Amino acid sequence: MSISFFRHRTTPSLSTCNNLLHQVSTRFTRFRFISMAARQDSNVQRRTQLNKNLLKARESVKDLPSLSPILAPDNRPLLMQNQAIGMVTSAQANFMRVIVESPGSSTVSENPRGFKARLESKEEEEPKVGVELLCVVKAVLKKIKRRVLVGDKVLVGAIDWIDRRGMIENVFQRNSEIMDPPVANVDHLLVLFSLEQPKIEAYSLTRFLVEAESTGIPVTLAFNKCELVDEETRLAWKEKLQSWGYKPLFCSVETKSGLGSLEFILREQTTVIVGPSGVGKSSLINALRSNQHVSDVVEGDNWSANIEGSKWLDDQRVGEVSVRSGRGKHTTRHVSLLPLSGGGYLADTPGFNQPSLMKVTKISLPQLFPEIRKMIRASEPTKCSFNDCLHLGEPGCVVKGDWERYPYYLQLLDEIKVREEFQLRTIGTKREGDVRYKVGDMGVKQAEPRLELKKHRRQSRKRINQSILDELDDLDDDENLGDVEEVPTEDDKRAIGLKNQ
Ligand SMILES: Nc1nc2c(ncn2[C@@H]2O[C@H](COP(=O)(O)OP(=O)(O)OP(=O)(O)O)[C@@H](O)[C@H]2O)c(=O)[nH]1
Ligand SMILES: [Zn+2]
């Protein structure tokens, strides 16, 4: 059809353009012919009309997500032999590692004539659950800006079970999503500190706890390296934390104490571990992934041992603590989910010492302190006189100032107020896309307006039309790349840690 536009120089109608755009996932190549026709058509009037149609059709690109509706969490699509449902465990550049959770059945074969039947029956002898696939993301998902995150449950298609490759075709709806690091479907956050090396600081711990609470995901607090302090110090911290509203766990990767309880808490969940650099996050993950410690609580299959072709049995990099600062040297880089021997996944994060609190507002801050939550609960049905009380000792406020972290609360409130006022002043009513965030000292993010180049110069219509055509060509190229050419090279495989099979 589109080839005939090219040959006979006819102008496709708007509805034809729309139709073609809606077929973007499978037949985008056709569009190339229209754009070529638009460029090569010598009749100016026809060319203008065609460009106008393309322009309007571009509007309908907004409907593209309908091409690939997001899957409900409990959706169990009928899977073909070369499809599977799995979880993304790491992402690097264009490649993602996916662990197969439910493979397709050979009874639903994409290939009704079954000329691969012999091969398939041979494959079936090998278990597919737990197999790690190196995947690319289908181009259409990128075009409709559907991000695939580590932790996402995904539908993988075009699987080559021998080479362990596939293509992520769709994403299931997420239960949760955290930004820093970007991980989906996180069930649990583990805030890890050490009492010594680096020495614990109550204010820094408060920032980490507030940041963790701001995600709305359940939080567990644990202290590592507890063999470095005496019983008295440990007890003092335990009591202190209880008054803050937390029940801390104490452990030591060095002596292996407390690891069994941690393993029990982490089982069957996806946990992200956060904490300052050098507290032993990577060391803890390594210890929990191996069966070196004696676990008296958890029994059962070590299913992660089934995972083949994996770098998971390599250890996380453990860094040295800097002699000068007593802190770790930021050794953890890419986020990946690591299966624990007792079940569940754990994601390491790069150690940083100053959570940005970018998502915390002055109104949400009070709810992130268990002490304030408790005081408000205890006072019910009386509440503060104002719904959005900031608890600064106003008359009628039920939150008093006689608790240990009140000065920290005030300090954080000031910091957030300054940030919010700055944003209001400098950014005003700008849309989110017009704001960019710069990471400054100590990892504190600052918002600033995104400057638009040549803002006041009107773009010529010719340029607009040309850019649309270029965009469509890119889309076309991407589509081909995603479906056909994007085969991981040996270097890519190495980059993502997939060993040669
Ligand atoms: N004494 C003692 N040292 C420990 C313990 N656990 C870990 N370490 C040491 O602490 C140092 C830092 O450990 P890492 O696991 O790299 O710390 P991290 O939190 O992952 O650091 P980043 O990657 O920078 O965020 C290493 O030298 C570990 O050997 C422990 O229980 N006791
Ligand atoms: Zn109040």
Automatic annotation (TrEMBL):
One of its GO terms (molecular function) is GTP binding. The keyword Acetylation does not apply. Pfam families: RsgA_GTPase. This is Ribosome biogenesis GTPase RsgA. Coiled coil: none annotated. PROSITE patterns: ENGC_GTPASE, G_CP. NCBIfam families: ribosome small subunit-dependent GTPase A (TIGR00157). SUPFAM superfamilies: Nucleic acid-binding proteins, P-loop containing nucleoside triphosphate hydrolases. Residues 175-355 form the CP-type G domain. Residues 184-353 form the EngC GTPase domain. It comes from Macleaya cordata. Keywords: GTP-binding, Nucleotide-binding. Residues 475-489 have a biased composition (Acidic residues). Residues 475-501 are annotated as: Disordered. HAMAP family: GTPase_RsgA (MF_01820). PANTHER family: SMALL RIBOSOMAL SUBUNIT BIOGENESIS GTPASE RSGA (PTHR32120), SMALL RIBOSOMAL SUBUNIT BIOGENESIS GTPASE RSGA 1, MITOCHONDRIAL-RELATED (PTHR32120:SF11). CDD domains: YjeQ_EngC. InterPro entries: G_CP_dom, NA-bd_OB-fold, P-loop_NTPase, Ribosome_biogen_GTPase_RsgA, RsgA_GTPase_dom.
